[in-house]
Give the backbone structure.
Amino acid sequence: MKKLFKILKLILATLLTGYSIVVIYMLLFSSPEKRYSFAANMQGSELSQKMFEILKFKDPENDRIYFEQSVPFNKRGYYEEGFMLLDKAVTLDPKMHLGYRGYMKLRFLRNFKGALADFDRLDSLTPGVIDTPWGEDIDFLRGESYYGLGDYQKASKHFKKSIENQGEDWADIQSFVYIGICEYEMGNLEAAINYYKKALEQSKYSVEAHLGLAKIYSEDGKKELAKSHLEKAEKYFNYKRNDPYSEYLNEIYKSDLAQVKTLNKST
Amino acid sequence: MKSKTNIFLLISFLVAIILTGWLNYQAKNRIGDLSENKEQDHDFQVCNEDRITQYYGMDTDFEGGKRAIKNKIFPELEELNYKGSGLITFRFIVNCEGEIGRFRHKATDLDMEEMAISPANIEKIEGALLKLKNWNPASNDYNTYDSYYVLNFKIRNDKLVDIF
């Protein structure tokens, strides 16, 4: 009986030791790619951050680790920590990370000048290449940055360049919408109408374009046209441009529709 | 020999327990988790301390969106003097009943370095936030949940210029 207990104790101790060895191996010695994927999949947890720290200890010049480690900090509003990591990634591989940092400065910080500096630097590092930071055309993002600065002329120029870069059929529909807004802001109502209509040629669900047209027609006293576009804006409202992380600069709300509706009734 | 077996078992058990506890702690704790501070948070309660989701996971928002927040609180905060340029970022909880609390903030300048904000201004921002009553808590088809929310106050040349 004593021998049996001893054997059981040894089996248990061996299993526990084996478990510990496996855990330590996974944390410290398994393939860096597997550990990187594990840490990325556990995004936001302290375990993920610890894994990134271990990976950095062994490979301090790996820009991907700093980039991926920065993501949850920035998503959760800890920009000092997030940008410290992102800046390091940019230092290690500017071509790879400048675009994303510019995108973050634009969409998460609304630091338009900082975003433009990053986009321009990226562009200068990649002659002959149309960059697509975080999947979006660089001129579209420049246009949005200038729009944020209130420089509608430069914004419109870059949105037009973005359409040229991508080709009219492949361009972001919001390029047409933004040009419409910029032209409206500059008082070029005919041009604004044309671009809103181009957006609607791409998709009849463009709520932003319907609202833009409704506003112009309403101000011009063309009540029926305004009403028709307002009705479509209401009908397709669920297709509006939105993002779970941050509010777009040209994001529209029900209150915008209500405002134009009131305007249309009073004119 | 007998004692060696016991020592082997004890050590292997302790190492396994410590490792498991550490792993569990690291996996459970997340960046941005806000722990309760009675003195700071007064009587604000969350519905489930163990399940507070992120704002982007379950559509937590204020009725009318960030535009409505800005329209409501910008006028009373724009006259304050903030010293410098940067971003004040508030992180707080919208509980499952649509009440907000547990406010924490961080501020960074344009170089992404920590920026000092006067406690009086922070108090005024919190006061303005507390006046917002139409929160839509995180929800799915079955229930409503506690969640974190992030709101940025953009400062340029000592003045508040945007809330998003």
User: Anything to note?
Assistant: The two ends of chain B are 69 Å apart (CA to CA).
